[in-house]
Structure formats: C-alpha cells, structure tokens
Amino acid sequence: MEEVLAAIPQRPPFLFVDKIISRDGNSITTQRTLREDEYFFQGHFPGNPIMPGVLLCEACFQTGAILMGANQQPGLGVVTRIKDTKFKNFARPGDTLIIKVTLDDHMDNAYYMSGTIHIGEKLILKIIFQAALLPSEH
Predict the structure, then answer these.
(1) How confident is the model at residue 76 (pLDDT cuts 50, 70, 90)?
(2) How many whole angstroms separate alpha carbon 111 and alpha carbon 93?
C-alpha cells in the first residue's frame, strides 16, 4: 500500500488500488480487494451490492496515473477523454479486482491508455482513455 500512496495523490475512501502487482515497460497490473463495508455498497444496491461502474473506471484511471508517473516528473494525472467503455460483469463484496493498464501512445503530456479489470478469469470491464500529466501546484 505504501508504494501506491507514494505514487498517486488519492486517499481513502477514494483510493481504488491496494497494491501494485507488476510493472513492465508500458503496462502495469494492480489489485483492489473489495470489502463488505465499502461505503458505496451501502446504497448500490441494498441487498444486492455491486461496485458502481464509474468506480471501476476510476480504478483503471488510478492505475494509469501510477503508470504515468513511473518514468516522469511529478505531476497530477487527470483524465481528459473516455471512450469504448464496456461493462461485462459485476464486482461484489469480497471480490479481488485485477486491474491492467497499458500505455498505447504518449505525446508531450498526453497519455493514451487502455485498461481491463478481471475477477479471476472473468472480464469485468474494458476501457480506452486519455489522460494528461499536469504540473503539480504547491
């Protein structure tokens, strides 16, 4: 967890990466284990809790921000475009998300990435997104 906290500014309860599993050139794999007491499960949906799709996307964005910062100057990674998002299955309490993001292209401060989330062998999410690395403001 310390490696994640050192890499991105997000903090609980809005941190959706627990651990960096691997980094390999232009790709990174992280994980997030969903606890029963997660705040978003309380209202989405009572009696049948599933992780909101927008938070699944955020897990990919946070993983991408870690990848962006791996070989760059410090800065703030912000999402600038989202496209071709497909939700294939649900994530529920107790599931461990395996989040993989690949850097497909990079020009100046623009990063073009694609991501997937799996639970075991089951595909949960596919997404293509663009982000920018902005200078840190102190």
Answers:
(1) confident
(2) 32
Q: Is 106 a catalytic residue?
A: no
What domains appear along the chain, each with residue ranges and CATH number? 2-134 (3.10.129.10)
| 58-92 burial: b if 16+ Cβ within 10 Å, else e | bbbbbbbbbbbbeeeeebebebeeeeebeeeeebe
Tell me which residue of 120, 86, 98 sits closest to 33, measured CA to CA: 98
Q: How many CB atoms lie within 10 A of CB 113?
A: 26
Confidence of residue 72 (pLDDT cuts 50, 70, 90): low
Given the residues 44, 106, 118, 138, the one annotated as active site:
44
Residue type, position 83, single letter = K
Structural contact between residues 52 and 38, judged by C-beta atoms closer than 8 angstroms: no
Q: Using 50, 70 and 90 to split pLDDT, how confident is the model at 138?
A: low
Which burial class, exposed, middle or buried, applies to 118 when counting CB atoms under 10 A from its CB (0-12, 13-18, 19+)?
middle
Separation of alpha carbons 39 and 92, rounded Å = 13
- 121-to-89, 97, 118 alpha-carbon distances in Å: 11, 11, 6
